[in-house]
# Entry
Amino acid sequence: GGKTPQQAKVLKIGTDAAFAPFEFQDEKSKEYIGFDIDLIKAIGKQMGYEVKVQGMGFDGLIPALEAGQIDAAVSGMTITEERGKKVNFSKPYYTSGLSIVVKQDNAAIKEFKDLEGKRLAVQIGTTGANFAKKVKDAKVREFNTAPEAFLELKAGGVDAVINDLPVNEYYIAKTGSKDAKIVGKPLNSENYGIATAKKNTELAQKIDKALEDLKKSGEYDKIYEKWFGRKP
Ligand code: GLN
# Structure
């Protein structure tokens, strides 16, 4: 307690802003934009907080939460048991999953079993990286960001990328990569959550409440439709 009315309540958000359409930088303004950014801004507003977004590497988000450098991580982060030991997660706010991306002219990889022994690119510290490491005899290369993994595919340095399906779809549809395609069924189902520090259970509860309110008011649906062009 003891807050004076002049003190603006600030919510410090960490994100890896290279994961369109969830978080990326506007080419001109360099501002952080995306589904996650709109969602956390709406959540902050609902809670009476001013949201400040800070960019960082994906694998730096949980350490930053643990060190108290940020209050929450909003970064297309999948809720996993492993991460749940280190941070709190909000209720799921988006259902995702992994998928395979190959070059348009690749006829050899059609589904998961074809990945055996292949060269794979993934983003470091992600569920896609964990998944790739389980593929028999595959040679896995980890990149700092998803776009770097896609670039390596384009350059022919790897045979496939394993990454979140909605991000793969956006990459192929929006960033003009006509030379890439998604193959096979989604590899799994994952839920994204907003991560907060383990000790900050009050914040986690407030976020869940705000998320629930935004779902009830229709605000969540509006943000979803803005970025995905359809209702959730
Ligand atoms: N959803 C994936 C994960 O949590 C990838 C997230 C990301 O790269 N921003 O590991």
